DNA sequence: GACAGCATTTTACAAATGTTAAAAAATGAT
DNA sequence: ATCATTTTTTAACATTTGTAAAATGCTGTC
């Protein structure tokens, strides 16, 4: 595993020694498009890093399904509530393409956090990185209209537009699919 | 300082030894109501923990000011971008009452993260805690109407309703003050 | 290539929220 | 207490977005 982790962006800041410790508890897994990797109502025992493919996190409402996260190659992928509170959460994670993932058991990861300073700080930075991205989105919702959020999405994630169904992008942007269609129509 | 930190919730999980290391770089400061503790366009060199009083974080837009965070006693208070990326951010933090705060210089805190396993994991948990709260809010925006978000706020932060201007709560909930007034009127 | 099953767009109408301005209520200072 | 200032509510109207349903477009399979 060591040689494989080395090439993944998120591991690049780590020393060889830390990387070896992580490699020892990592396993590569492959799953098909359409797989629900994580279920909202179960405590998920694994932490994943996406090597290839794309995924989305969503919550089920009464009538709709809301996508609130997309992950591409290099993304970390875990159930927030399982990871942080060791309890079931509110997110499902679905693979939108065939995916290759690095899988680490949470109990192994937590043990490393308690043993290894460098890995503990690596884990801290993962949480901080997700935090700032999430806060950024919350603020954008307040300051930017739906059309501008769509344009930003186009600029920042051109890959995703091609590969993800628009209905998922609509809910990610916080509008209905009808509104997104209107925005796209006005755009041309 | 050691004896003072001991009584603050966020420090309670720490060993005496870790607490002493933190106490050695902590300082208590007091500031008056109305003080802007953190400015959006400056890299903020300190990290704070609120001992008493309340504060809000807000961003300035062209015509409005959007409050996106409230902190009460026990809250950690820092500029996300300064803390995480060492660069100016988008948040101002204003004290809404006279406040007593624990102040720690970021350079001191980062040094402890690199030296002390327990403190590094403590920092990780701080980020994770903020992360899950922020994600929760983003999802609530999608699934709940403004009236329900107001009711949740009443239930979860009854203190804040009494002590914070409604215009700030309106923008925190993602509506205009007019809409919040309508919700409150319908409520009775 | 025709068909079935989805995804996307369009249309018409409804509901929610925003905008502006004025009135009422609350707050603070003298 | 009174006055000035600020906050909150109310009103009227405009705009945005949502809902439901039909029309169109796309994809994969036989």
TrEMBL record, chains A, B:
It comes from the Bacteria. Pfam families: cNMP_binding. Transmembrane segments: none annotated. InterPro entries: cNMP-bd_dom (IPR000595), cNMP-bd_dom_sf (IPR018490), RmlC-like_jellyroll (IPR014710). Residues 10-104 form the Cyclic nucleotide-binding domain. SUPFAM superfamilies: cAMP-binding domain-like. This is Cyclic nucleotide-binding protein. It comes from Pedobacter ginsenosidimutans.
